[in-house]
Amino acid sequence: VALDCQGSGVLFSVAGLRTKLGLTNVNIKATAVALDAGLAANDATPYPHAAIVALDGAELVLSNVRFDNCSSLAATRSAAADSAHTGYGSAVFVAGPASARLEHVVLSGNRAYASGGAIAAVGESVRLELIDVNAVDNSAMDGSGGAVMFAGTGLKSQLEVTRLTASANTASLGFGGVLAIAIPATSGVGTISVTDSVFTNNAAQYGAGIGVLPAPAALAAFNAGNLKLTGMTKVGLSLTGLQCTENTASVAGGCLFSKASHAAIAIAGAVWRDNVAVFGGALGGVFTGYPPLPA
Asked: What is the three-class DSSP state of 81?
């Protein structure tokens, strides 16, 4: 089955506890890419939301699905636009409490104006599982997570990535050319793991492979002096068997960059080579206020 994701609406929206949407052997693509690489932040033109949206306790299961050239572009970066989640996750957007499982899925040429070029998962008790996913040439135009943005809160939130193959994904103005992970200050997060994955030739400002950053509320509170490091809840990230090759960060962290002081990152079985950055060709981190960093 082939579906056209070019247009002003959402192809599938699933909401409600015990509501489930399953798609198998489906191709979702845009007949034309609704994207101007030079789009100004204050451009007034409206753009579509994600192709598939899951929220309010819903469950999304995708198997052997392909997304090509979908777009989720926000007219502005205003608070109103961000709260409506426009510009996040052009292929799949998940707002907790909800879950999504993607297996044998291809994400190619998708664009989001804000964050999560192809996939964005945000909010309380959000769960995202990626198994044998291939992400190629996806982009977060004005945010983080060239292919995937995860910003879950609460101990029921979890991100599990297994055998993700990613190349030519970009977040040129933010964190995580492939994957951005936003860490909350005090609510904690459940499992966050990346296993046996291969990242090649991706690019970002910070962390061309993976960028770890404080969630916006945590960052604002910390910078304002209203939150001390000792009051933050430590969050564990497990990176096992990650191969990072020929990725480029324009500032820091050719493979991995962390700005979240309360993120405890365990790395095992890694092969990182020929990655490039001005600071930290493979690994970089900043753990106190640093104004040039994007929020």
From this structure: helix
